[in-house]
Amino acid sequence: MENFSFILSPQWIASLIMLVCYVVLFSEKVNRAVTTLMAAMFMVFAGVLTQAEAFGGVDFNTISLLIGMMIIVSITERSGLFQFVAVYFAQKVKANPVGILVVLSLVTAVFSAFLDNVTTVLLIVPVTFQITRRLQISPYPYLILEIFASNIGGTATLIGDPPNILIGSALNLSFTDFIINLAPVVIITTIVLILSFVFIFSSSLKTTDRNRAAVMRMNAFKHIIDQKLLYKSLFVLFLVISSFIFAEKIHVENGVIALSGAALLLALWTLGAPPFERDDKTEEMFNLVDWTTIFFFIGLFMVVSGLEKTGLLEVLGNKFLSWTHADLKRTTFTILSVSAIVSSAIDNIPFVATMIPTLKSMEASMGGREAMMPVWWALSLGACFGGNGSLIGASANVIVAGLASREGHPISFLGFLLWSVPVMLVSVLIAGLYLYIRYFAFSF
Amino acid sequence: MFSSAAQIIAVTVLIVSYLVLFTEKLNRAVTVLLGTAVLIFGGILSQEAAIQAIDFNTLALLSGMMIIVGIAEKSGMFQYLAIAASKLANASPRGILALLALITAVLSALLDNVTTVLLIVPVTFQITRNLKIPPYPYLMVEIFASNIGGTATLIGDPPNILIGSALNLSFMNFVYELAPLVCLNLLLLILVFDFLIGRNLHADNENRQALVNIRPIDMITDQTLLLKSVFVLTLVLFGFITAEYLHVQNGTVAVFGAALMLWLYTKNDEHSVRDQKVEDAFSFVDWTTIFFFIGLFAIVFALETTGALEILGTRLLSLTQNSIQKATFFLLWISAVLSTFIDNIPFVATMIPTLKSMEVSMGGREAMMPVWWALAVGSCFGGNGSLIAASANVIVAGIASKENERISFAKFLIWGLPVMFVSIITASIYFYFKYFN
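Predict the joint structure of the above. Result:
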């Protein structure tokens, strides 16, 4: 009887459900939203969680932030702003292939700090093809550099990459916290990355003056489809980002800011349209939200909260503590390297979502949240930079590969590894040095 | 009456939002989201409180069922049911009107109203499209029938669920006390609609004949998907009925059903096709309606947390001077009128503790039962008063607008208010003879 109840204990059921869920997720046999939702509902049926607890486990701040930003970006996209910027800067460097390599990757890095990476590459890759086709050069170096830049650039801000959104929301960190702590290392890494690419490719990227003239003839302003919308979008983006920066002062959380921004932009965008068209446009924008990702998050939050409730993650945290002897430095660098390696092989979102409660349970033994911050930054840097490790390390990589193969320039898994592993190692090394100098070198 | 600044702001936001909804100058989801934004940025409501305000069970039920129904529709299942039902009424628009109202009422007594209208509306559109007649009267009568039918049972309408669980009432308590009244009202509804609209509805004989000639079975376009859909729907409906015993809420059942449906639907597809189909299926959810509910929940919750709703409730009850009879009729009318303008769930949730606190002075729970039934009937029937008075109304309007049939706030009132008043008058007479004669 005792054995029986042991098998049926919530801890075992929860770990079993989680295990199956993660295995199915990584095998990609079933759609990821379907997988986590089913696992979450099994947790409720099995009595690990009540329905109310399951919803209580969902971080709705993250969910609203994601939904709000997705709506804002999909509307802004229609103005043509992003393509305009890319072409504009390509012409600023006189259509020099190496110069274009630099500006496109810089634009990617900056955009991805404020948009999600998938959106960024979806916007930048088509423009890249337009330009490289006119220059009659291989798009390959541009594409892979854009992948790397998007993953690195996204690390700089709270909203740039899902791991940051998760961490920021769980710890109530502000937009400025991320910029102050992570932007320096992101800027350094981006510079190193771009310089090495320029060094490697400067001799092979050559084109004729005629081709360059073709790029110069492109009309950047042609990309601006809707000028009024452009102003509205810029206005709302400005409001939203400044509210993010002052979020703490105005006592409003980021999720509400993003969702209110989305509502405001929807209102401005559809203002004056006849009711039918207005409601259709609104519904269309709601449909453009990446609901698979949203439901994937919702299910995942529930699964992790089930696991958390059983105390399993605390056990894991304690194991980890005894392993690192609760030493801050040791923990920081272990987290950095482990999360980089894990994230290069599998989706970093479930990993980060599981690590958050685990790390939180360790706070008391590590001297409080304030003291533990380097560990959290290490988690963010490792998980985000790790996405560069392989072609399946981050969704942006997969998207670029898909777009490239459609254009007849396939990026192979192994071919990509040749570039990505060194990039990942160097960037994590830089991150390690940065963390050491910033948080440990001068304090004893 | 409202003392604090917070209460005044909360009431103002509610009124302004309703004015905008009424004039339809903005999309309804955008309107309430902006209203919520004002409340949160104004410091009346915290983000946490706003989230707490959201009834996730309803949202989960809604989005889950919309996904299941959206996929099931692709099998031709609803077309099948539509043809079969119209044949039953000999494809006469008049007969179909009565038949659909009846089916809706019965279904909504057994299922929640949201599920009921999600199942019946696609069938309705199939029929009206085939007969080339306007869907509008059918949708209206379905809304009314779902709100009236739902009143008959413990699980039929959210106010009943709330009252039933607060007082520990059984399924049969509700049927015994309320079913006669509901049947009477339903009959009245069908007769009046038949007299005003049904007998004037005409379809071309050609279209009718064409409809009668269709074999229902030919409407099935995807047999495998049909089997999967029937399997999932049966499982889900069974889950709803046994939910109480399983200690699982409807939301869980619906979301699980949706995940299962999505899995079965995409099981044999390759990666990219599968993920695209899942993403497309998420668009079956009427997101405008979902976000409308989210905003509405938050705005009404602000009314609740600032104490404005409680002030209103106690003020009103103090007028009844502890007389059961006065309290019964008063509550019947007040809850009907209030439910017309604010969602009835928060209203009933606020009234329950207020009424419970009056039990002692009113002679105990047993004696006070007529007051409770009045609350249930008033808030359920009140759901017919306006387009935003009950979830089912909002959903029907949402689906209709997807099908390019607008049901406007003002247009609905013309039908909704009379229906609501007639049903409350009937209820008053019923209560008088049943409890006070």
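Chain A has a mean pLDDT of 88.
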